[in-house]
Amino acid sequence: MGLINKLINLSISISPFFILCSLALDQYFQDCEPRECGSNTITYPFYIPGLQKSFCGHWGFEVTCNSKNQTIINLSNNTYAVQEILYGFQSLHIVNTAFIDSSFNCAPDIHNFTLDKKMFQFSFPGEAFLLQDCTEDFKKSLGQYKEASCVSGNKSVDLLAINAEHMNLSKFVGNCERFVSVPYDKERKNDTDIDGAIRKGFQLNWVVSNCSICAESGGRCGYHIETSSQMQCFCPHGAYPHTCPKKGLSGKVVGLGIGIGIGVFMLLVLALPIALWHLKKLRSGDSKFVARSVSLDGSASDLERGNIYFGVPLFSYRDLLEATDNFNESKELGDGGFGTVYYGKLKDGREVAVKRLYEKSFRRVEQFMNEVQILTRLRHQHLVSLYGCTSQHSRELLLVYEYVENGTVADHLHGKKAKPGSLTWAVRLGIAIETASALSYLHASDIIHRDVKTNNILLDNTFKVRVADFGLSRLFPTDVTHVSTAPQGTPGYLDPEYHQCYQLTGKSDVYSFGVVLIELISSLPAIDLERHRQEINLSNYAMNRIQRCAFDELVDPHLGFASDFKVRKMTTMVAELAFQCLQHDKEFRPSMDEVFKSLNRIESADFDALQEEEMAVERVKIQTSNLPPSPIENVHAQLLSNNQVHPPSPISVMDKWDSRSTIPSK
Fold it and tell me: Beta-carbon neighbour count of residue 454 at 10 Å?
């Protein structure tokens, strides 16, 4: 009966088509007509005051079109030229108008950039400082900086452009006449060209309500004219809450509808015998009609037709079925809380990883598509690229990722690829830094991973990291009433506070990453039933040894802990950092960004100088070893022997932090 229903629906759809064409367009729909400004199309959430009504856009997204046909937006007390708007990715690329010319323009003054995170997020966050009229001594203390010029009237003023990653504005007080913080995209900067990166501008993602569903239905987004808070979908013939209706008519056209309906009924009467004949042929197995019915299915080759759903590439179910050899078990790469992953090869030669989501893992296809749009906009060199997904009409929801060929970190530490000594300490520290970088980026994008573990950290052939399954939990319920249906972490990595409040936060990712750090140090799995009952969890095993300063019992002996000073110091410092991450109270854990910065400091520390210093101290101890102990030393020794003083929590890595656990959890 499917063919008959299609004919009926097709016939019925004729009447609304003729009726709607005979009516005048809705005024709100006309008011929100997109406008062109240079190469940009201006539509929701943006609007041009005077050309479009204020209810056609979102507050804070007002733009102007200047005499040069440049789209201008005001942010943080400065004007920015909009170079490109990508509605499918909800992103825009902007450049401070003062930086568009060949030299920086001091007038009007450039202000420190602040971002309203309720409206925008940085895509590739980087921060630089522009310093004016600094003292020569201060310039020398900076080390590396880039000189630039600033034009103020006819006067050229020297500027310094420096990376702000390890600095704060207070350092410049009294040393420079003027200093401002400006953003840039990290991906657009090489090692020295800070000022060049600033001139190229940066990319922002907007996070206000998504208009894709309304736009897909032929409507234009806006807000209720009276409340100014309730989002509306302005359609050609009326306003609706979310989307333009596909069927149904207003009372104004009932009479006309009846007339056309009679004609449609007659058409159906004539078409019915033909439909029944087609149905008979289908049931008899006529190969010609079976093939035709498949081609009409929602799984037809979307990819070959280049379909894109508001910025999200769509793959056909049939193509992915073929790419994975009908989801052959031999193609299986792994499985987890969200679904099973298969290796696949597309017709264009690309190798992909296809995640086949468990049926219980999604509820609303619409929500699924909206969230995939968010995930595809996340771009970071250490995140697995999400290529796209199957369409909302597909028989299964599949996610398509880039294929990362060298397995997981777990494989190399204690799995099928593990070989003693094959993963050097330098490689392991690099894995830790790159993973922390990716997680820090996710947290800055207000996304919590919720399942950080070595099985979700993939490696390419050069042992560079790709974090997988990031943000997948966005696709599933995370509130308390649905805990049983949503993947919420993995035993051995799970935040102990989860069992109290049933919520995972950014600090939960920090806890899980602490377990990952211990795995990198020890080469031991997060869960081992053969360990002592109280140390089955690697976190308990590690905390016990770190508190006793028994690092030699924790660190993998193949790393050279006993023979290599640098390895011994670095692994000890990373263990101390892991200790902070594994605190049961999340308020005492550092943020992911602080962890990332600490790992960078460990990697760049001058361990040769530290070794010389320790050797000098050791020589002094030897020279004074024959002297009688002081009264204070006697008291200290006695207290330790009586177990009245416990060793403090290791904090040597944390001493240089600007903030100690004062950042609220996300």
Answer: 23
Among positive and negative, which fits the CA dihedral 618, 624, 625, 631? negative
Tokens of 93: 């690329």
Report the DSSP pairing between strands 202-206 and 231-235. Answer: unpaired
CATH 2.40.50.140 given to domain 297-403? no
What distance in Å separates the CA atoms of residue 181 and residue 131, rounded to the nearest whole number? 9
Q: Is residue 576 a contact partner of residue 497, using CB atoms and an 8 Å limit? A: no
Do the Cβ atoms of 242 and 214 come closer than 8 Å? yes
pLDDT above 50 (res 204): yes
CB 358 within 8 A of CB 339: yes
- Which of the residues are catalytic? 451
Report the C-alpha gap between 70 and 97 in whole angstroms: 10
Superfamily for domain range 422-608+638-666? Transferase(Phosphotransferase) domain 1 (1.10.510.10)
DSSP character string of 365-381: HHHHHHHHHHHHH---T
Neighbours of 637 (CB within 10 A): 11
Helix ranges (DSSP H) in 385-491: 409-414, 425-444
How many other β-carbons are positioned within 10 Å of the β-carbon of residue 173? 8
pLDDT of residue 460: 93
> Which one, of 80, 62, 67, 58, lies nearest residue 38 by Cα?
67
Cα–Cα distance measured from residue 5 to residue 53, given in angstroms and rounded to the nearest whole number:
42
pLDDT in the model for residue 232: 84
Show me where the domains of the chain are located.
2-23+251-295, 62-207, 297-403, 422-608+638-666, 609-637
Backbone phi, then psi, for 231, in 5-degree steps? -70, 140
Q: How confident is the model at residue 43 (pLDDT cuts 50, 70, 90)?
A: very high
Cα separation, 448 vs 509, in Å, equals 7
Q: Cβ-count burial of 419 within 10 angstroms (0-12 exposed, 13-18 middle, 19+ buried)? A: exposed
Q: Which amino acid is at 173?
A: V
Side by side, the strands of the sheet bearing 125-134 are: 104-105, 146-152, 155-163, 125-134, 176-185
Asked if the model's pLDDT at residue 198 lies above 90, the reply is no
pLDDT over 90 for what percent of the chain? 32
486-490 mean pLDDT:
61
Q: What are 333-343's pLDDT values in tens digits?
A: 987 667 889 99
pTM for this predicted structure: 0.53
| Burial (CB count within 10 angstroms: exposed 0-12, middle 13-18, buried 19+), residue 99 | buried
Q: Which of 439-453, 496-510, 556-570 has the lowest mean pLDDT?
A: 496-510
Contacts of residue 621, Cβ cutoff 8 Å, sequence gap at least 6: none
Mean pLDDT is lowest, of 214-228, 332-346, 555-569, for 214-228
pLDDT computed for residue 248 by the predictor: 47
Give the residue from 397, 226, 247, 427 showing the smallest Cα distance to 309. Answer: 397
Joined together, the tokens standing for residue 653 give 């890595």
Q: Which of 554, 547, 380, 397 is nearest to 468 (CA)?
A: 380
Reported as half-sphere exposure (CB side, CA atoms, 13 A), residue 514 has a value of 34
Tally of residues, the chain? 666
Half-sphere exposure in the Cβ direction for 571 (13 Å, CA): 32
Query: At 203, which helix (H) or strand (E)?
Result: strand 202-206
Answer whether 219's CB lies under 8 Å from 232's CB.
no
Identify the DSSP state of 35: E
Contact predicate 352/403, CB 8 Å: yes
355 is in an annotated binding site: yes
Tokens representing 66 are: 């200047």
**Distance from the first to the final alpha carbon of the chain:** 52
